[in-house]
Structure formats: structure tokens, C-alpha cells
Amino acid sequence: MDENILSGILKRIEEIKEELNELESKVRQMEAASEEPVKLDAPAEDLPEEPIDLSISVPEISAPSFEDIPQSPVPEDLPEVSEAAPAAEKKHRKKKTVLEAETAEKAVMDVMAEKEAWRTDRPGYPVKNIISAISLNDRLLLINSLFKEDPVLFQGTIAKFNEMGSFQEAIDYIKENFKDWDLNSEPVYRLMMAARRKLQ
């Protein structure tokens, strides 16, 4: 290494050390200044001995009494309200239309979709074969928990899923052939998410 470069570096290191020392001394001075008690500019003798009255006086306002308010008579042509009015309103209520009934049914389906998260969660990139979307650990989980430890039944179901044209077919197949499955369980979620990657 060139001696000029080395001496330049050493000189710069010395300058940095001096700057650090100056900064440290400024910090110490600031710490010492913050620890000193605050001194009042005016001596205590100049302060008034009596306390200052800070109370506020509010003028009294007289509120009118109810007797001062003019009374107007109740008009005689008002209809009388009876206890039977709510029952009459119930008779005149409009029945739900077919469209309103369908939207109520859709709302129920939306609630079900929230419970069955595999209907709405994003499945991932598409695959040509569902088995490629299921890891080895998930295969063991599915075989043991859903397919009653029968790998042949698992393979057959996956093969049928691969032949299907839509995801709804897979749902119908499960509801028809595996009625005891809990559609909100973790194994069903994993299977259905893999099926969605093929049958989107």
C-alpha cells in the first residue's frame, strides 16, 4: 500500500477521534446542564404573599316556569290511537317476493361459504394432476383421517377428481359418497384446496 494513502488514512482517523472527543464533551455539558435545578429569575421576596382570587362570578338567569308557557288546546280532529293498531299493521304487511326469498337464501349460502373457507381462499397456481398439489405429509393426513387408512380409496377419489370438469362436481361427489366428513375440518380444507387448483 502506498505510504501517502496510509498516512492520509491515519490522519483522517486522528481527525475523527478529535471530532468524537469534542462531541463527547458537548454531551457531558448538556447532561450537566440538565441536572442543574431551575433558578427563578425573580427573587422570592418580590412574589405576592396573598393568593390570587381566580373565582369567576356568573350572573343569575331566571328560567321561565311551566306556568309561564302558553298552553294550546289539543285539536279534536286527531284520530284516536288504539291498542289494536299494531295487529292491524301486521295484517297489511307485504309478503316476501320470490326475488327477496332468493336473496335471503343467497345470504345463507354466503354464511356457509365463510365457514367452508376452501370455497373462498385462494388455491394457488393451477396443476394438471391433483396429486401433485398434495404434499406427502398431507397425503398421509388425508388417508388416515378422511379415507379410513385406505390408500386405494384415496387414489381412486383423486383419480375421479382429475376426470371431473368442475369444482361443483367434486363437492357433489363428496357430499354423496363421504357424508360423515366435516366440511370445516383441516383435512377437508387441504383436499379441497388441492382440488380447486385443478378444477377452478
What would you say about this model in short?
The chain has helices at residues 3-35, 85-91, 98-115, 136-145, 151-163, 167-177, 186-198. The chain is mainly alpha-helical and 200 residues long.
List keywords for this structure.
200 residues, mainly alpha, 52% helix
Q: Care to describe what's here?
A:
This protein is mostly helical. The chain has a domain at 124-198. It has helices at 3-35, 85-91, 98-115, 136-145, 151-163, 167-177, 186-198. Mean pLDDT is 76; it is low at 107-113.
Per-chain topology:
Elements lengths: L2 H33 L49 H7 L6 H18 L20 H10 L5 H13 L3 H11 L8 H13 L2
Helix pairs in contact: 4-7
Q: Give the amount of beta strand, in percent.
A: under 5%
The description of the largest β-sheet is:
none
Poorly predicted regions: 107-113
Quaternary class: single chain
Number of strands: 0
Shape: flat
Following the backbone from N to C, one meets helices and strands in this order, namely: HHHHHHH
Percent of residues in helices comes to 40-55%
* Tally of DSSP helical segments: 7
Rg to the nearest angstrom?
42 Å
What is the structural class? mainly alpha
Distance between the termini: 66 Å
Provide mean pLDDT, rounded.
76
